[in-house]
Write a structure and sequence with these properties.
alpha/beta; Rossmann fold; 5-stranded parallel beta sheet; about 20% strand; globular
Length: about 130
C-alpha cells in the first residue's frame, strides 16, 4: 500500500503495546513502538509520524513530559492519549499540544480504530466511542 499512515504507539505495558500494534498493522497502518516517553522522543527525533498514541503514566519520561517536548519542538503529529484517570489535572496543561482525543482505559479495540481513522481523515468532530472527551 502506497503512502501508509505512520503511527507511533507509546505504552509501557508490553501486552497492550503489542495488541495495539497488531490491530493497527492489520488495518494497514505502519506502526512503530516505544515503551516509554524517552524512547518515543528518540524515535521522534529521527522520523515523522502522522499520529502518536500515548499512555500518560510511564517510567523514565512520562507522557506529559513527552507531550511538552513535542510542543516545544513544534512537532506536527496528531495525538491520542490513553489513560485510566480522566481527572488527571496534568492533561489540562497549556504546555502540551492539542490532543485529538483521550481514550479512557480500558477501551474497546473497535473504539480505538474509530478514533484513529477519524483522526487520520480529520473530518469534523469525533463521535463518542467509549471516550471521555
Amino acid at each position: 500500500m502506497a503512502n501508509l499512515k505512520k503511527i507511533l504507539i507509546v505504552e509501557d505495558e508490553e501486552n497492550i503495546r503489542c495488541l495495539l500494534s497488531e490491530v493497527l498493522s492489520n488495518e494497514g497502518f505502519e506502526v512503530n513502538l516505544a515503551q516509554d516517553g524517552q524512547e518515543s522522543v528518540d524515535q521522534l527525533g529521527n522520523k515523522s509520524f502522522d499520529l502518536v498514541i500515548t499512555d500518560i503514566n510511564m517510567p523514565r519520561l512520562n507522557g506529559i513530559e513527552m507531550l511538552k517536548w513535542m510542543k516545544k519542538t513544534d512537532r506536527k503529529e496528531k495525538i491520542i492519549i490513553m489513560t485510566g484517570d480522566p481527572t488527571d489535572e496534568r492533561l489540562r496543561n497549556v504546555d502540551i499540544p492539542h490532543v485529538e482525543k483521550k481514550l479512557l482505559k480500558p477501551f474497546k479495540l473497535n473504539n480505538l480504530l474509530d478514533v484513529v481513522i477519524a483522526s487520520m481523515v480529520n473530518k469534523g468532530k469525533l463521535q463518542n466511542a467509549g471516550l471521555y472527551e
